[in-house]
Amino acid sequence: MAFKSAHDPHLASALNERFRGHAERDFTIWAEQHAYATAGDIPADATKAWIGRQKLNYRGIGARQALRHLISGNVDQAFLEEIGALANLERLELEWPMVAKDLSPLLRLEKLTFLTIDSPRHIADFDLLLRLPALRTLIITDAKKMASLDWLAEAHHLEVIGIEGSMYSPYTLPSLKPLAGLRSLQALLGVSTKLADDSLTALAACPDLVFLGIARVAPQADFERLQRLKPDLVCDWFRPEMWATLKPPR
To answer: Which InterPro entries match (predicted)?
Structure first.
């Protein structure tokens, strides 16, 4: 992938939107056209739906086999079991909070290419998600029980990885070393994060990496080192003006 200017601030914003899939998920449009109070309200031929769990309002959603893109919040285990029956689902966004304790129902979603999970408070082991054959984008937010990124060391099929904290609870990444050499990785997303070892060097070994949308997790010198190693990589922290009025990270 080639860019006219890797250090254009507008490019970083555009890539962030693209890799997060925001262009296909305008909430104003979704609220007007795809939001439903109950699963029974979803037309049988609907390809998109947005429904948050309220009591048992999700019951029957597993029969909506035309769905390709689902946004759901407050998903518990019973709701997740129904979601697992949506054999044609390609994109799934599990919004805050995700209270289910077992992710295994998702393994039935063999066409799923895009998955986001916000605040999976009961989940510590995410390895099984890598068994989803079509998955290319995986973004996990505020996973308080995730100990490290070691489980991603063989995720060579993923094109977008997001491991992020929340506004009031930054997630500390022990190290980026498990990501070194991931063959398909195009974007790493990590807002509201810290980095325990202050080293970005492992990312230089990701051949297809084009966008780094991460917090100020390392000293300026380390961002500069990565920029020298990957001059076409797009990252806001490669621009000197971003550092002009900032104190060094703790």
So the answer is: LRR_dom_sf (IPR032675)
State in Å, rounded, how far the first CA of the chain is from the last one. Answer: 35
SS3 168: coil
Token duo for residue 153: 């060391």
Domains and CATH numbers, the chain: 9-242 (3.80.10.10)
Q: What is the pLDDT of residue 8?
A: 80
Q: What tens digit of pLDDT does each residue of 49-77 get?
A: 999 999 999 999 999 999 999 999 999 99
Count of other CB atoms within 10 angstroms of residue 92: 23
Tell me: the pLDDT tens digits for 25-46? 899 999 999 999 999 999 999 9
pLDDT band at 250 (very low <50, low <70, confident <90, very high): low
Percentage of the residues of the chain whose pLDDT score is greater than 90: 90
Indicate the helix (H) or strand (E) that contains 187. strand 187-190
CA 194 distance to own-chain centroid: 17
Neighbours of 126 (CB within 10 A): 18
Q: If we measure between CA atoms, which residue out of 109, 23, 38 comes closest to residue 72?
A: 38
Question: What token pair was written down for 209?
Answer: 């990496």
In whole angstroms, what is the distance from residue 248 CA to residue 250 CA? 6
| 97/158 Cα distance (integer angstroms) | 24
